[in-house]
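hiii, so i know i said id send this last week but things got crazy w the move. better late than never?? heres the sequnce for the chain we talked about at the cafe, plus the structure i predicted for it. fair warning i was half asleep when i ran it
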Amino acid sequence: MEAIARDQLLLARFQRHDLHRSPGELASCTELGLLDQGVQDTGGDGAPWALAIRGAPPAAEGDLVYAWTLRGAPHAYRRTDAAGVAVATAPWSEADAAKRVFDASRPLKAAGIPVLDALRTVAEQARAIVERPTVKGELSRRLTEVLDEPYLRWCRPCQAIHAYEQPFRLAALQAGLELEPGTSPPVLRRIPRLRPNLLGRLGDDAPAHLDVVRGHLRFYPGAGPKDVAGHVDAPVKEVKVRWPDDAVEVAIAGAGGEASGWVLAEDLDAVQAAAPTGAVRLLGPYDPYLQARDRWLLVDDPTRAKGLWPVLGRPGAVVVDGEVVGTWRPRTTGKRLTVNVEPWARLPRPLQDAVDAEAERLAQHRGVTLAEVAMTWR
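okay and structure toks below
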């Protein structure tokens, strides 16, 4: 088995994610390969910041579509891929669908309703309701009126009955519905000129460039079936059935013991040839680079990992050529931004200057003035 060093894998991931690109290097955000797999749009800066730090200009009108997809999280994709994404992010099977909807599967099973049929029902009803832009709460209320008891749950925080959350979210794109960007609470609307999938086609019918298993290995070389399953919320055995025939198992050197992962054969040379560029980035808390499920590979210190991925209130990550070197949090007062940085070790002056430059870039992205970059050494 061929061995690849841990830091080499991370460097290759960093570059496959286009994080080494200079500001404005791309003519259009749609050039980013990462949009094949979606860019999660969670948090204050979300997908627009993730695209900006990858060298993309702001999206032009009509470039992107936002939808709830993997794990029920909002993601940005190329609008031209919307129909294919609906198929690619659909479950592969009944067992997979049951896993993706979590506890919603229990009452459906008890009532003898297949989960795939339930998702079709929710999608059809949502499609009928959303004839014009509709706030999530209104759609949920109207779905509650038309869905049978096995589809519904008691929501303690709201003290009301709602449709189960994951079927609600996973059915939306199947119904041909997108999220209006920047709306909170979310507003859903029909995607113009898109024929809804309504789960007529399942995940195995996905266009090749949108395949979620192969795509995960493209952007996270060194991952394994369990990592992909966690990223998709699918059963591991379902992922193993769809594992690429040309994936090569490699030993991961310098990973704190014996470990192995997989790299697509066509990517092996590029992974081994990736060379440092010195690029420094301030990644948002839910940036795709931090969404890998093999967190042990990215951060091998349990205390640091807990600080980077707490249960609530995640910070962003300071990353240098693929290596996480600290965390950061923004604080805005009026039109002035302070970026609080906590490096895990003292940064050399050139890296401090690079962090300052990225903080200035963030301020410009937000349309505010950078007041200070405050570094607290751990």
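btw The longest strand covers residues 323-333. thought thatd interest u
miss u guys!!
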